[in-house]
Design goal:
219 residues, alpha/beta, five-stranded parallel beta sheet, globular
Length: 219
C-alpha cells in the first residue's frame, strides 16, 4: 500500500515554484500550500478587524482569531475562500507590517508544520526545507538563471500588454530580489534535490518530480 508523503520546496523568486508544484499536486491528488498566502490571509484578517497596523500587540492578539486552511488547492481564511481577495493592493500595502514580527513568524511556522501531518502535501516557500520542514520526505530547491527568469517575466509582460517593459530593468530587479531573499535566509538545504529549470520545460520538471514522488510512495 502506498503512503502519501510530505514534500518541501524552496527556490528563487520567479523560478516557477507555484506553477510547477501546483500542477504536480493536482496530478497526484495532493494539497498544495503556498506559505506566502498564509501571511496574506492574516493581513486580510487584520484589515477586516480594523486593527492599528502600528500597534504590534494588536497584530499579535489577532493571531487568536486566525484559522488558515487549504481546500481543493484554494486558500481559506476562517472557512471562507479568499484566493482572489488576498491578491489585492491593500494586502500588499499592509503585509510588511505583519511579516517581521517574531511572534507572527513563530505562529506561522508551527501552523505550517501542523498542516502537513499525515502526508499528501506539497508546501512551498523560502525556508521550508531548512526551517519549517527539515525532516520532509522529499526536499526540493527550484532555481533558474537570472537570464531565464528575466526572459520569462519579459514575455509574460508582453502578453499582458504591460508598458515600460524593459529586460535589463527586470534583470536588475531579480538580482536585487535574490540578494534580499538570500540575506533573509533563503538557501539550499544540503540534502535538497536541486532542480535548475533554466532550459527545461515546466512539463518535464513536473514529470520528473512525479516520478520521484511515486518512487518514495512505494509505487
Amino acid at each position: 500500500m502506498k503512503r502519501k508523503i510530505v514534500i518541501a520546496v524552496d527556490g528563487t523568486a520567479g523560478s516557477g515554484k507555484t506553477a510547477t508544484f501546483n500542477t504536480v499536486a493536482k496530478k497526484i491528488g495532493y494539497e498544495f500550500i503556498d506559505t506566502g498566502l498564509m501571511y496574506r490571509a492574516f493581513t486580510l484578517l487584520c484589515i477586516e478587524s480594523e486593527i492599528d497596523f502600528n500597534n504590534k500587540e494588536e497584530i499579535i492578539e489577532s493571531l487568536k482569531k486566525f484559522d488558515f486552511s487549504v481546500k481543493n488547492n484554494k486558500p481559506h481564511l476562517n472557512g471562507k475562500e479568499v484566493e482572489k481577495r488576498i491578491q489585492e493592493n491593500d494586502i500588499v500595502k499592509f503585509i510588511n507590517y505583519v511579516t517581521p514580527i517574531p511572534e507572527v513568524r513563530k505562529f506561522m511556522v508551527e501552523a505550517q508544520r501542523a498542516m502537513v501531518k499525515g502526508g499528501g502535501y506539497i508546501e512551498i516557500g523560502r525556508d521550508i526545507t531548512t526551517v519549517v520542514l527539515p525532516n520532509a520526505d522529499l526536499k526540493i530547491f527550484l532555481d533558474s538563471s537570472v537570464e531565464a527568469r528575466a526572459e520569462r517575466r519579459f514575455k509574460q509582460n508582453e502578453r499582458l500588454g504591460i508598458k515600460n517593459n524593459n529586460l535589463d530593468e527586470i534583470k536588475n530587479s531579480i538580482i536585487n530580489r535574490d540578494e534580499q531573499d538570500f540575506k533573509n535566509g533563503l538557501r539550499k538545504a544540503e540534502d535538497a534535490w536541486l532542480i535548475d529549470n533554466s532550459n527545461i520545460p515546466i512539463q518535464d520538471v513536473v514529470n520528473m518530480v512525479i516520478d520521484k514522488i511515486k518512487e518514495l510512495e512505494g509505487n
